[in-house]
Amino acid sequence: MAWQLNVERFWKKIVDYYNASPQLVETISRELGPCKQRWARINEQVCKFVGCYDAASRGQRSGQNDDDVMKAALDSFFNIYEHKFSLEHAWRELRHDQKWCSTYIVKDGGKDKHKQVVDVDREDEIAEPESRPVGVKAAKAAGKRKKSGKEEEMSQLQAMMEMKEKLYKQKILDCLLAKKDPLSEMEETLKLKLMSEML
């Protein structure tokens, strides 16, 4: 229930942000449904293109530059899906986000043969992509593996710390709920936050 409210708030913020764009002054504002549909189309096409781009990157030969890789990826996309990839601007915006980062890793501990050139003036702007989080299956498999003595102690300690934190939050919430005087704005916010965490 709480996650549905968060999702609705999230999409409402996106619709409001989109409709507030100065480029859309004096145009008909978009509703929630069309915004979600547009994102679904962008997401689908960008995900397909990411696969083509990764394959082209893995097949990059000596002497080829990024433009050659991009051309190969666009050609591959056209050959597979029988239409041109028209969302290159969206891919360029999303490509360094966690979901769309390349999953290609050089095997056998070898070095990547392609050197990354960094413009000295723009070095501060370039951020390293974050590592992708562990998937559900991998997390479950890791949990089933037998842990060493230290790992077992650490997991027990972590479980105790989490329980202690949960009890502490519960105690604060109980105090806020038991308070007879009207709550301040900050206390009310804290109460709502703690209640949503407990649910």
Automatic annotation (TrEMBL):
Q: Which domain of life is it from?
A: Eukaryota
Protein's UniProt name: No apical meristem-associated C-terminal domain-containing protein
According to its UniProt entry, this protein's organism is Brassica oleracea var. oleracea
